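ok new one. same drill as before - structure tokens go in, u give me an amino acid for every spot. 713 of them this time. try not to just spam alanines like last time pls lmao
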């Protein structure tokens, strides 16, 4: 065992936190700088752009590093956002507290004053919270209208060099006249009024939707004026310029539409009647266009579905993702139903399912002989001699495989969705009998298919009977925007759909395989930002407005501690125990808290190219701090500057090609929790006084350069 005392003047744990956080400085703000992570053992590389992936990639052997990783993972698990802020503030406040220690400030004073200072900041910034309803109303009312030149652009076909179209592909719906055998006597009470209406290919810049309508059935092409699209989409929520979307043919859309494709370009689509929460999603995305367009497509689809069914307007449980590396990013889309990857052997089975209604089975565990459900208890009076027979002694294994296959064949099962793993031998036998088995299906996907098909999840196939099956499912090869089925090396994307399903799959594509993880992380981050905003019912003013007010407030408290004495110096604090510390100590600690906010703002401004350097950013921040102090009310100054959009607009998020953008907003709970977790971690490490290392590392430490710092016991 090795023992190392932590030097109180140059705290080793805080230095480790600072060093680890430094690696993530460029991840702060909307304009993040990506990092390559190379695995030397396999020579594989991955492109990352999040604090979570960074921590997963680092060799965190120190205790402080492991605590930092656990803190970031906890933030990610609960909020999926705010991890970069947490990581940066950990480093900034660690450095600031190290300076306090150099000035002989007691640890107890640092802990108490920093905690109370952050609590005071959290109370102060409540005035910068705005209700989601008010934000969405303001954003929708301030939508940028298209200019005359943009209206002319609506006449340009989508194949032109402008490439400003959002490509909508309406897949063929399940016709009501098709025969379905009611084995379970279960059918949805009402069909989804927009079933399969939202396979969106967002290729365009913001604010433009297409205007070319082409029918594949007759090869004809017609052009819709920009004003016509605006009226039909935003007010009536259906196209009125095509014979397929006339009011009289509303009930026959699925049977007449076929494989028609609709292109829309040149008209601003971002109105509250059309996209519902689309503007809020855009303001929370902070300017990442590809993921923002996918999220807006989901919002539009769920908004229209909510109006028809009365369901929740936005639901994360109804969203899934499918990553397709090797395809251009222009192939990214939102597709109703479930899109997943299967092997080429499984794809051959799907060819037998074309235009057929299938019977489906849902399994909420593994489809293996060894699987036992959680909580399974063996009988007490039974002694197990051999639980898992080897493959060589294949009598039992062959019997299990035959029994499972017989159950599926006898019930005429076509499709099995399994939450966990699937036995490879059973998979091969199912393929030979034209039964498609898909593994690693998430719980929300199983629930979505269970709701509309009537299928009841089972844990073991031996529990399966006719009443557990679902019906009406269709499987097809997923097709890209060029209407061709795709094969990605050893995997083939397929689409599973059923009438009335609420599930949407965001198909994420990129030609650079190492970028796939980055794109998926960004997408889910924006989805959860919108989710948390709706759950909180309010958002913060973005662009650094909240952190600026925290900085101003912290400096004001520090100045008061220097000017006032006795009780007057602590009126801003709730804890009377702080009176035990001198005003000088309080001022130093509060200034350390303010230093963290100042560094945060300067790095964000530098990363977003608002300033040429961090020094210039700090100069600009000091200028605004002085103006806020002269104003007399820093919060009023922040509100005024945010409305003007001069300092706190953040990254530009244009509606169209115009220079004018939209204000940005941040989550309330996620941001404040990131602050608290960052400070809690720093103060926790600050209060440690020793590092005790046990295990087989004794010889490594003896031969290391830092061996003189340890005492070996």
């Amino acid at each position: 065992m090795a023992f190392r005392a932590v030097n109180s003047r140059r705290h080793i744990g805080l230095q480790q936190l600072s060093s680890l956080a430094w690696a993530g400085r460029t991840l702060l703000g909307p304009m993040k700088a990506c990092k390559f992570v190379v695995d030397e053992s396999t020579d594989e590389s991955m492109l990352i752009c999040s604090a979570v992936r960074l921590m997963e990639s680092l060799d965190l052997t120190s205790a402080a590093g492991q605590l930092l990783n656990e803190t970031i993972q906890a933030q990610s698990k609960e909020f999926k956002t705010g991890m970069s802020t947490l990581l940066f503030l950990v480093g900034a406040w660690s450095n600031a507290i190290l300076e306090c220690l150099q000035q002989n400030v007691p640890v107890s004073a640092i802990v108490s004053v920093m905690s109370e200072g952050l609590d005071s900041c959290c109370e102060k910034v409540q005035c910068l919270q705005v209700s989601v309803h008010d934000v969405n109303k303001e954003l929708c009312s301030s939508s940028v209208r298209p200019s005359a030149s943009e209206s002319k652009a609506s006449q340009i076909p989508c194949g032109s060099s402008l490439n400003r179209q959002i490509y909508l592909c309406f897949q063929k719906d399940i016709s009501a006249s098709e025969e379905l055998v009611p084995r379970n006597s279960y059918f949805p009470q009402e069909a989804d009024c927009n079933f399969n209406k939202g396979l969106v290919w967002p290729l365009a810049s913001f604010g433009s939707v297409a205007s070319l309508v082409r029918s594949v059935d007759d090869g004809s092409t017609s052009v819709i004026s920009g004003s016509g699209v605006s009226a039909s989409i935003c007010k009536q929520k259906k196209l009125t310029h095509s014979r397929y979307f006339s009011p009289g043919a509303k009930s026959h859309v699925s049977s007449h539409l076929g494989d028609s494709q609709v292109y829309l370009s040149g008209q601003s689509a971002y109105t509250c009647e059309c996209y519902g929460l689309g503007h809020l999603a855009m303001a929370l995305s902070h300017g990442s266009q590809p993921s923002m367009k996918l999220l807006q497509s989901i919002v539009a689809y769920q908004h229209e579905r909510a109006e028809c069914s009365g369901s929740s307007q936005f639901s994360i449980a109804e969203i899934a993702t499918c990553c397709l590396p090797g395809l251009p990013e222009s192939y990214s889309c939102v597709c109703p139903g479930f899109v997943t990857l299967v092997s080429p052997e499984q794809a051959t089975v799907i060819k037998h399912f074309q235009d057929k209604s299938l019977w489906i089975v849902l399994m909420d565990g593994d489809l293996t002989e060894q699987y036992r459900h959680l909580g399974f208890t063996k009988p007490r009076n039974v002694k197990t001699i051999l639980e898992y027979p080897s493959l060589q002694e294949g009598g039992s294994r062959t019997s299990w495989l035959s029994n499972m296959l017989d159950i599926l064949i006898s019930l005429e099962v076509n499709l099995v969705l399994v939450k966990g793993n699937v036995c490879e031998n059973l998979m091969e036998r199912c393929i030979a009998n034209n039964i498609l088995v898909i593994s690693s299906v998430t719980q929300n996907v199983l629930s979505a298919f269970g709701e509309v098909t009537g299928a009841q999840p089972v844990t073991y196939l031996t529990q399966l009977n006719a009443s557990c099956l679902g019906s009406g499912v269709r499987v097809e090869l997923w097709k890209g925007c060029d209407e061709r089925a795709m094969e990605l090396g050893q995997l083939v994307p397929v689409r599973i759909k059923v009438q009335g399903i609420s599930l949407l799959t965001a198909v994420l594509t990129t030609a650079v395989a190492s970028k796939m993880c980055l794109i998926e992380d960004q997408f889910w981050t924006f989805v959860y930002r919108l989710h948390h905003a709706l759950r909180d019912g309010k958002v913060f003013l973005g662009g650094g407005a909240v952190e600026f007010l925290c900085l101003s407030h912290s400096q004001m408290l520090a100045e008061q501690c220097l000017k006032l004495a006795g009780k007057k110096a602590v009126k801003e604090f709730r804890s009377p125990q702080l009176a035990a510390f001198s005003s000088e100590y309080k001022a130093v600690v509060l200034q350390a808290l303010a230093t963290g906010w100042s560094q945060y703002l300067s790095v964000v401004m530098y990363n977003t190219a608002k300033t040429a350097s961090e020094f210039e950013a700090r100069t600009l921040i000091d200028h605004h701090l002085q103006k806020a102090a002269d104003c007399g009310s820093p919060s009023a100054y922040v509100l005024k500057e945010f409305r003007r959009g001069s300092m706190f607009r953040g990254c530009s998020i244009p509606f169209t090609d115009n220079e004018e953008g939209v204000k940005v907003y941040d989550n309330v709970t996620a941001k404040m929790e990131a602050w608290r977790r960052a400070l809690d971690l720093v103060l926790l490490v600050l209060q440690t006084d020793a590092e005790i290392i046990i295990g087989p590392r004794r010889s490594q430490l003896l031969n290391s350069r830092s061996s003189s710092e340890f005492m070996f016991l």
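The mean pLDDT is 75. and btw The chain is about 40% helix and 15% strand.
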